[in-house]
Design brief:
With 293 residues, this protein is α+β, with helices and mostly antiparallel strands. The protein has three domains: 8-77, no CATH class; 82-132; 142-287, Alpha-Beta Plaits (2-Layer Sandwich), CATH 3.30.70.270. It has ten helices and seven strands. The protein has helices spanning 13-24, 60-76, 79-84, 87-132, 142-157, 174-181, 183-200, 220-224, 226-243, 268-287, and strands at residues 8-10, 34-38, 50-54, 164-171, 206-208, 213-219, 253-259. The strands form two sheets. It has a four-stranded antiparallel sheet, with helices on both faces. Strands 1-3-2 form a three-stranded antiparallel sheet, with helices on one face. Strand 5 (206-208) and strand 6 form a beta hairpin. Helix 6 (174-181) packs antiparallel against helix 7 (183-200). The longest helix has 46 residues, at 87-132.
């Protein structure tokens, strides 16, 4: 039985011809009928060189077996094998990985920085609220009122056309309520009066500027309707006084209003002073006819 020859695995076509010539053994270069060539590398796992089949030397069985083997080995080739055999690719992959890592780290730092900024802003807002908001009534306090007056004055100094009015209000009988019923009832009286003031002048900022004093700055819609609002204030206050059972649930508030007159007023403080004076005149007038103490 003739011995079956194996397929030649060589580096190039020239070596394949030499190997085939040597296998024939007659010392002469013979013509080779090449059906196909398959590029493989020198190892058994990666395609690179040349597998040559000749009709006279290699049997179909061996050719098919060789093709099946190297096709299977080629399928096993992975990206890791490719990277391992190519140092330049190793460097590139490491570079890309480092770049991605740097991007992720930078993104995390940006997110953390944004969070810190937001937390700081919340703290600033909370601090500002504490500075300008009255703890008992939750309306703006005396500092907030001063800031509002300053802002209006700056607009006047810039010769902006302004139309506004200042209202000063004083809660009557607070000392009596504190002395007879305690400061807890006095605080309830202050909060009831504040809610009433905010409800009447709902489009204007309300400030608590003292223990029993409030201020309102009327602009825009409330300024246009200022006379009607004063009438509504007096009407509703009388209704509450008539219906409330306890003295601290009643509302008795003296009020004075002053309108800004560009011909005679040169400062916002002057308008506030006129409103304060009008409030005391109202309180004196009400003492004669109401139970104002």
């Amino acid at each position: 039985m003739a011995q079956e020859r194996r397929p030649f695995i060589v580096e190039d076509v020239t070596l394949a011809m030499i190997a085939i010539k040597a296998s024939v053994g007659d010392g002469k270069i013979q013509l080779i009928n090449v059906d196909y060539c398959l590029a493989i590398r020198g190892s058994d796992t990666n395609l690179y060189s040349i597998l040559t089949r000749t009709t006279d030397i290699v049997s179909n069985t061996n050719v098919n077996a060789a093709l099946s083997y190297y096709s299977a080995e080629e399928a096993k080739t992975t990206l890791i094998d490719f990277i391992r055999d190519n140092p330049a690719v190793d460097i590139a992959v490491v570079g890309v990985a480092m770049a991605l890592l740097a991007i992720i780290v930078a993104q995390q730092r940006v997110i953390r920085a944004r969070k810190e900024v937001e937390e700081s802003q919340h703290q600033v807002d909370d601090l500002s609220k504490r500075v300008f908001v009255d703890a008992l009534t939750s309306v703006r306090n005396k500092d907030g009122f001063n800031e509002c007056i300053q802002s209006l004055q700056e607009r006047l100094d810039n010769e902006e056309p302004l139309a506004f009015a200042a209202i000063i209000l004083d809660c009557d009988n607070l000392k009596t309520i504190n002395d007879q019923y305690g400061h807890e009832r006095g605080d309830a009286y202050i909060k009831t009066a504040c809610r009433f003031i905010c409800r009447i002048f709902k489009h204007s900022p309300v400030f608590r500027i003292g223990g029993d004093e409030f201020a309102v700055v009327l602009q825009n819609e409330d300024y246009q309707n200022r006379r009607e609002l004063l009438e509504l204030f007096e009407k509703n206050m009388n209704e509450i006084q008539a219906s409330a059972g306890n003295e601290w649930e009643q509302i008795s508030v003296s009020l004075g209003m002053a309108e800004y007159d560009p011909q005679s007023d040169d400062s916002v403080d002057g308008v506030v002073h006129h409103a304060d004076k009008a409030m005391y005149e109202n309180k004196r007038a009400r003492k004669g006819r109401d139970s104002v103490r």
